[in-house]
Design brief:
Layout (H helix, E strand, L loop, with lengths): L1 E10 L2 E9 L5 E5 L4 E6 L26 E2 L5 E2 L3 E4 L2 E4 L8 E2 L11 E6 L3 E10 L10 E10 L3 E10 L3 E2 L3 E2 L2 E2 L9 E4 L1 E4 L13 E2 L11 E2 H5 L4 H6 L3 E6 L6 E4 L4 E6 L3 E5 L19 E6 L12 E2 L5 E9 L1
Antiparallel strand pairs: 1-2, 2-3, 3-4, 5-15, 6-9, 7-8, 10-11, 11-12, 12-13, 13-27, 14-26, 16-25, 17-20, 17-22, 18-19, 18-21, 21-24, 22-23, 23-27, 24-25
Length: about 325
């Protein structure tokens, strides 16, 4: 196994680098220090398992979230407000009257990085300091994202963070999976008996509902396009899947498969937000991707439609820990 990296550009006084991890099975993972981004996962047959832009520099031309470490919050906050006791923290409003994806989020920042090798793994450590008040969030926050690859084609992602003030934190890795095909052609299985319907603003507004007998039932393998073509009012409202699923604790959390490949996902997160790239239309820096080309499995806390954000509150000195493992076959 080996690691390497190249510098491809410079931004905001920092070098932009692409880091490569190669295992002994012919699998290559490419990562960017822009946004601690998972750029490519290429198998021995040459097929890329994730949706990628045409060039590394395209990721920093405009915000597109492909493979990025999105935060401090991945998702929406109603009215951009976090109410804690008698205090109200106003976050940047960048989605109408709501806040989304951390404002000018950590996925748009250039992270420090350090490749490493172990006896049985190779990887990269990314670190970022996000200052108190950035995008309205309290607390100086130190974030570390670690990607590791082994010879069993396991790619793991571990995110840790520490704040010196009470704050809210609900990031997610925003990789779109393709498994060498289009997402609508893939089969998906989820360990989820409930999902969260959303309103026109994309915020959950009805609490949990059972997936049984709905387009959202992926408890057994089902083609993604069956949900997309279901004419379910929730699917029509969001032009596809754009919904949180509450995991039931069984493992694995998700399995995604194409005709030639399979990805098995485990995580310590309580929810997955499934999004089928409904907005992509072959424009801008993402001109090579279109609607339903990729699908996200965003491991995070269950989003809330209210300003009660206790589930994502981080105490001073409390260590945030998110773990994900993707096994590719």
């Amino acid at each position: 196994m080996k690691t390497s990296f190249i510098k491809y550009e410079r931004k905001d006084g920092h070098d932009l680098c692409e880091i490569s991890l190669e295992n002994d099975q012919g699998m290559t993972v490419k990562l960017l220090n822009y946004g601690a981004t998972l750029e490519k996962v290429v198998m021995s047959d040459g097929k890329n398992m994730v949706m990628s832009l045409e060039s590394p520099i395209d990721y920093s031309k405009e915000r597109n979230f492909l493979g990025g470490t999105v935060g401090r919050i991945c998702g929406r906050v109603k009215d951009g407000e976090w109410k804690h006791g008698n205090e109200i923290f106003q976050l940047l409003k960048n989605d109408g009257e709501n806040h989304i994806h951390g404002g000018n989020g950590i996925d748009t920042r250039v992270w420090n990085f350090r490749p490493f090798t172990k006896d049985d793994k190779i990887g990269v450590i990314f670190t970022l300091f996000d200052p108190d008040g950035a995008n309205g969030f309290p607390g100086d926050l130190k974030i570390k994202a670690v990607y590791e690859l082994d010879n069993q084609n396991n790619l793991s992602y571990k995110l840790t963070a520490l704040s010196d003030k009470l704050t809210i934190f609900n990031p997610a890795n925003h990789t779109y999976f393709t498994l060498g095909d289009r997402a609508e052609n893939l089969e998906l299985k989820l360990a989820a008996d409930y999902y969260l319907p959303v309103g026109e603003d994309g915020l959950p507004d009805h609490g949990m509902q059972e997936v049984a007998n709905k387009a959202f039932d992926f408890r057994n393998f089902k083609k993604v396009k069956r949900a997309l073509n279901s004419n379910d009012p929730q699917i029509n409202l969001r032009n596809g899947l754009d919904h949180p699923f509450i995991l039931n604790g069984n493992k694995p959390a998700a399995i995604l498969r194409s005709a030639d490949h399979e990805m098995v996902m485990t995580t310590n997160a309580p929810a997955l937000v499934i999004y089928t790239g409904n907005h992509f239309n072959h424009t801008g820096s993402a001109s090579n991707v279109g609607q339903y080309d990729g699908i996200t499995l965003e491991a995070q806390e269950a989003p809330s439609a209210s300003n009660d954000l206790d589930a994502i509150t981080l105490l001073p000195g409390e260590k945030y820990k998110r773990k994900i493992n993707w096994n590719f076959k």
